[in-house]
Amino acid sequence: MDSEYLPGQLERVQQIETQMLSQIDRICRKHKLTYWIDGGTCLGAVRHKGFIPWDDDIDVGMPIEDFRTFMQLAPSELPQGISLHQMASDPTQYVLWGKLYKDDTVFIESDAREAGCNECVFIDVFPYIQLDQKNGDHGVRHLRRTQFWTKLIYIYRIKNPNVLKGLSWEPVARAGWKVVHAVLRLVTTQDRLRRRFERACVAKHPSDWWGNPSAARPYPFHHNTLMDPVELPFEDLVVYAPHDWDKFCTDLYADYMQLPPKDKRKTHSPLVLDLGDAT
Fold it and tell me: What is the pTM of this model?
């Protein structure tokens, strides 16, 4: 965790993100695009009917074709002061999914600062892809291929990563990381790595399994778990969640109704936070 929130700041971040989520919901309903609240956002809706109390981000998932359509349509349909960003059109981005920004805010984490990315309060919008299934692995190998390129882009952009802090072998890990970072900078470009990632996302033999190709861990979900999303309350909204949200949360978090111990309740609290005159 980068820093601690001052009193009231976390709640204000959550309010701004809820307002942005309402815009995603509005656009997707208007154009009949499939989306669902993803990861901890879905867990929060199920367990708390809104944010996990200490959480400070919202995640949204979409089938990749709906994601592409959303990325094309949303910029002209979002209200003034909210913008949509992705690496293909905004090379300052260092992640491979879409980000919705509240433009008059600043929310910069350590990795974003290291990558030279001037982030705002944001929502992550993840494309989900159909997976190749081999030997009954439900697409895990396919996700590991996409993760390989995700990790290379991360190393390419970030010379001193936060993820290595606290490792018993941190000095060795950092030295090796810097070598790979320098080599990647010499032999390739971010755009080439992005295009390799996009090619890796394509399934030669699409199955009924889907996954987030940028996720830190290879979690495949069956079509029946995700598709035909259902409505759930989230704060003062009613939004879409995975069809079988119980299985979705169980697959990700096991005994998901059990609160984690206090030392495991993490946020993305930023190095730099300015909520501006966001309303």
Answer: 0.93
